[in-house]
Amino acid sequence: MSNRDGSAGRIGLGSHRRGRVVTAGGAMTGRSGVVRGAALRGGAVPGEPVAPAAADHTTRATGGLELALMIAVLPMFGQVFHYLIDVGPLYYLSKAWPFLTLPLAMHGAFRLSGRHHPLYAMVLGYVIGITPALSMIWLGNAFLDAFGTTVKVWPLTYYFSVLSLLVILRPHPDTLRRVLLAYGVVTFAMMWALWLLVPRTHYAVDPTQSKLFMYEVERGYRIYMPMVFGIMSLLYLVRRMTMSPRLIHVVLYLAGLATMVMIFKQRTSIMMLIVISGWVLYRNLPKLAGSVATVVLGVGLVAATVLVVLPAMDLVAAKFGNSLSIRMNSLTLAFDYMLADAWRWLFGVGSITRFSAVTLFDLFGTNHFYLADIGWVGIVFEYGVVGALLLLALYAVGLQNAYGRRARAPERRMRDPRTEAMVLALGDYVLFLLVISSVYSAVFTPGELAMVTALLIYVRGFWSTQAAMGPHAGGG
Predict the structure, then answer these.
(1) Mean pLDDT calculated for residue range 454-474
(2) C-alpha angle 386/389/394, rounded to 5°?
(3) 106-133 in b/e burial notation, b at 16+ Cβ within 10 A?
(4) 16 SS3 class
(5) Cβ-count burial of 430 within 10 angstroms (0-12 exposed, 13-18 middle, 19+ buried)?
(6) Do residues 448 and 431 lie in contact, with contact meaning Cβ atoms separated by under 8 Å?
(7) 29, 169, 301, 397: which one has the fewest Cβ atoms less than 10 Å from its Cβ?
(8) CB atoms closer than 10 angstroms to residue 62
(9) Distance between CA atoms of 176 and 17, rounded to whole angstroms?
(10) DSSP string spanning 171-239?
(11) Of 306, 290, 366, which Cα lies nearest the Cα of 333?
(12) Alpha carbons within 13 A on the beta-carbon side of 462
């Protein structure tokens, strides 16, 4: 609880620094803090009692402010608009968001204390400091070109900025659950609205014309909707099935999956979602049912491989068409270039931008070389084995905060099973990001991982935070 002098006590994210207690809210023992409870938020005089009516008013105002801020900023931290050139102002705002929220990130990095702060600081130092310098050596980048290649990794700072924002606002975990699920519903509703209302003439073959409405020979018309909140919602439904199975959970999940198959049509994402969902359901089966399922799955996989997969390999290759051949060509070029020097393997060679003086054609004789399409080989190419291991460690700490022994401790579990299901779904989403990184680059939208990890750390430590800092007025 709060100390008598009005300062917040130490909480789970806090640590002693130079003899002072630095809390996750930025307060130090003996002076005012950023967060001090409902009375100070409502403008009351410190140390004086708050009238019930005033407290109620503060509760409503604070809760509304939290909700509005969460609704406004979460899509930016989730990089929803980061590649959508179709929504001009939001697209540019998303590009600038890491720099606009840099004060929050600095507050989170230097005023808060967390077990994973050193790792994130090390990764940021490597990808923003060392890699650009190497690109100047290996690829001949100018300084500005080299710095320009770091734009895609700046969203890793969202780990600090999201954590800082959460600690300052202190939203109740159930408030976060409702906001995340609301965005999931909005995602699928917008997909159907756009699919039914937007004429086919608005769909583009050239991705430089549209990243939302696309037409491809292999997949036809499709909407490339950012699915971060949509997939989180589907994983939440899977977790709800394991806790309190209801038909509505199954129906909603199948409806969302069908929407992705019919409209989204991103094959790898859909396949990995099904795999993660099946893994979660399998892990939560009763012992006997799990044993039966293991035998059935084993027999089914062998039969499917012999009877379906092997005979259909040529058909699958033809179905993936040009995208598969481009990926294979990119893999060959990347391996050939890295094998020429052991130092390239170890520390990487960096990257170039489309505005760089050195072009992909100068390096490889082709413009069809995409690091983002060759998964961890592209990461090793750009950041080396050292950088790849550092980035893998970020996934590891995300999974640790979701599934680890510390995360499963009774005092860290949510009291509401619906909120606990959401927390577990966040962990499942980290696993989804890890699995899908085998195909898509881990730095394509790194802000997703940073945001989800910050959410997990905050929510898992919520009750200890409340005990240290006092009851929160805006609890949901």
Answers:
(1) 70
(2) 130
(3) ebbbebbbbebbebbeebbebbbebbbe
(4) strand
(5) buried
(6) no
(7) 301
(8) 21
(9) 31
(10) --HHHHHHHHHHHHHHHHHHHHHHHHHS-GGG-BSSTTT-SSEEEETTTEEEE----HHHHHHHHHHHH
(11) 366
(12) 25
Are 458 and 469 spatial neighbours (Cβ–Cβ below 8 Å)?
Answer: no
Supply the DSSP symbol for 373: G
**Distance from C-alpha of 286 to C-alpha of 335, rounded to nearest angstrom:** 46
pTM of the model: 0.82
C-alpha–C-alpha distance, residues 198 and 237, integer Å: 29
Structure tokens at 326: 């481009």
More confident residue, 192 or 57: 192
Q: What number of other Cβ atoms are within 10 A of residue 102's Cβ?
A: 14
Residue 99 burial (CB count, 10 A): 12
- Looking at residue 467, its amino acid is A
Per-residue pLDDT at 207? 85
Cα Rg, the chain, nearest whole Å: 24
- 215 pairs with which residues across the strands? 221
In one-letter notation, the amino acid at residue 209 is: Q
β-strand pairing of 213-216 with 220-223: antiparallel
Among 103, 223, 217, 208, residue whose Cα is nearest residue 160: 103
pLDDT, tens digit (0-9, with 9 covering 90-100), for 292-318: 556 656 655 655 555 555 455 455 545
At 208-250, the pLDDT tens digits run 899 999 998 888 999 999 999 999 999 999 999 999 889 999 9
- Rounded CA separation 346/131 (Å): 12
Residue 391 tokens read as 């980035």
First to last CA, the chain: 20
Secondary-structure percent of the chain, ordered helix, strand, coil, rounded to 5: 65, 5, 30
Reported residue count of the chain is: 476
21 pairs with which residues across the strands? 16
